[in-house]
Amino acid sequence: MTNGWTHEGSPFHEGEHRIQERVGVRDRAEMQGQRVIRDHLPDQHREFYESLPFLLLGSVDAQGRPWASLVAGPQGFIKSPEAKRLHLNAPLLPGDPLKRTLHDGADIGVIGLEPATRRRNRFNGRAGAVNDTSFDIHVDQSFGNCPKFIQTRDVSYVAPSTDGPAPHTRDATLSDMDVQRVLATADTFFIATAYSDETRSASMGADMSHRGGKPGFIRMADKTSLIFPDFVGNNHFNTLGNIEMNPRAGLLFIDFEKNGLVYMTGKAETIWDSAELATFEGAKRLTQITPEEIIVTQNTLPLRFRFGDYSPFLAKTGSWATRMN
Q1: What is the CATH number of the domain that holds 62?
Q2: C-alpha angle 193/59/206, rounded to 5°?
Q3: Dist CA 130 CA 98 (whole Å)
């Protein structure tokens, strides 16, 4: 298979074009996208995905709201039978919104992340052959992703056991103590966005992206919303381009303390001009999220994480905590 974009037209949709134009990188982004975005998984990406104990997925519910999710299993639960398909063989975690959003033909955004090495790859596609314990993801767009802002962690899979604490799932709000604890200590989270129109172009669909920073880089903007900085990235602007066309997003936080997850979905807004931007060296804009639904789970995550190091790219960034002291 050939490298690069082989479809007619751009690998980016209208919203991504708008953001690229706004920041003055449209031509550069197009040249890069045509070169690095593919309609299949290179062999090294296929091997990479197959080695992972977890995969991060973005999807969209019946109300058009994006959700970010995590699927986990023992090594080998992910297979790539062919260059345009992954097969996942694992039950969904308790409380995961994928239980409502996953169906044949559903748009899916994917991040494969290996925290110990800071390696990550991304693709978007569509679900197929969905049943209770497995499903496929067919590739529309695939590309590698730089290691910026990833904190290193060793990750191991732990098979669920009836001997441990019982899984717990509940609805929550931003005032929930566990939600506030996870937000205050987060150095990593994941954001799902989506946009599609009647053309169903390969440049559209669901997207999943990683965000990293020092603890405190995400904070409450007010009682109903939270805010975080957007640092310099790959100039694709997949997340902001989707928000430009469909101002919604889903966030996923890992609760390392209680072996669970915090899922949220809601309205999204890009803030281009704010005095608070000066707090974060390298931050170009802010993203504000107003959650409409939050799900908290505990003792549901069959993974254990051991922290290593912060990304060296964070050395010159500030934090909300510094700003507020």
Answers
A1: 2.30.110.10
A2: 45
A3: 11
In a domain, 22, yes or no: no
Q: What is the DSSP string of 172-193?
A: E-TT-HHHHHHHHH-SEEEEEE
Q: Could you please report the per-residue DSSP string of 206-270?
A: EEEEEEE-STTSSEEEETTEEEEEEE---S--HHHHHHHHS-EEEEEEEETTTTEEEEEEEEEEE
**Residue keyed to tokens 């904070």:** 219
Environment class of 108 (CB within 10 Å of its CB; exposed 0-12, middle 13-18, buried 19+): buried
Q: How far is it, in rounded angstroms, from Cα 298 to Cα 84?
A: 34
pTM of the complete model = 0.95
Ramachandran assignment for 205, one of left (phi > 0), alpha (psi -120 to 50 degrees), beta (any other) = left
Asked whether residue 26 is assigned to any structural domain, the reply reads no
Helices (H), the chain: 14-23, 26-36, 43-50, 98-101, 177-185, 238-245, 320-324
- Asked if residue 226 is part of any domain, the answer here is yes
* Residues of the domain holding 253: 32-324
> How many separate domains does the chain show?
1
Are 134 and 104 in contact, with CB atoms under 8 Å apart? no
Asked if residue 68 lies in contact with residue 211, where contact means CB atoms within 8 angstroms, the answer is no
Instruction: Return phi, psi of residue 313, to 5°.
Output: -70, -15
In a domain, residue 16? The reply is: no
pLDDT, block means (10 residues), the chain with 325 residues: 82 94 93 93 96 98 97 96 97 96 97 97 96 95 90 95 88 97 96 90 91 91 92 85 97 97 98 83 89 97 97 80 46
Measured distance CA(284)–CA(229) in Å, rounded: 8
Q: How far, rounded to the nearest angstrom, does the alpha carbon of residue 79 sit from its chain's CA centroid?
A: 21
* The pair of three-digit structure tokens given for residue 221, joined into one six-digit string: 């903007």
